[in-house]
Request: fold
Amino acid sequence: MQFDDDANLDTSDVKDVRGSRIPGGRATVGGGVVGLIALVLGLLFGVGPDQLGLSTDEQEPAPAASSVSELEQSCRTGRDANAREDCRLAAVARSTQDFWKGEITERGGQYAPASTVFFDERVNTACGAATAAVGPFYCPADRQVYLDLDFFQDLRTRFGANGGPFAQAYVVAHEYGHHIQNLTGTLQRAQDGRQGANSNAVRVELQADCYAGVWARNATTTPDRGTGRPLITSLTDQDIRDGLDAAAAVGDDRIQEKLQGRVTPESWTHGSAEQRQQWFYQGYRTGDMARCDTFR
Reply:
């Protein structure tokens, strides 16, 4: 994945609260191995703590926008995005939003922007408090995508993904897929509390994978809102393979096998490795969000 070296990189969509000392209760769920599995399977590449049933010792407001001067100073151009992880993730978030704004507008809708929040250790959101253990997630209550950048190392070391810049981009694009579902009303279908291979929870996650693929197909032709030129200049076949590999690594069956030594489809919340790859590639192959109806 390559960004336009000379492009101006606007990071105003990103709130960087890394290093902030955030007071308040900690997110809790279950205990022991069962609690860990619930956290990982329930929220990994998912939606906010309120939908998983996480509790907090006390409700806390979402983090206020901190000074982004450091991020602004470090991430000014596409060249910075090619060199630095945080700049790259900020650039992917911008590209994703630019694409979806155009797509939703063309379909007669109105796009409401979302912010990306970089955090570490723990964060307070309008969906409740969460720790870094839950992985990346989207909070529909405040329309923000939350990313702990250390997760991308875990994606390789704990979940066995090959990694690479586009594996990270896939994660960001998946979370923005949830934002699109929130805007279109689809996300509510996952709130019935059911789990299992054919549940609405799984269908919502697979659709977000498909939406990530749709963005990937269109990423190199999406004009940046500032320059009018595509921010991403190239995606290679290897990039797409890295995305597919990351999708498989976080399949429910793969994670269950690693954490509990057996696969229990009745408790799936995100779909199997094969399903996640299938739907990401469906979006990438067609480039059409209308082909992402996982509920049919």
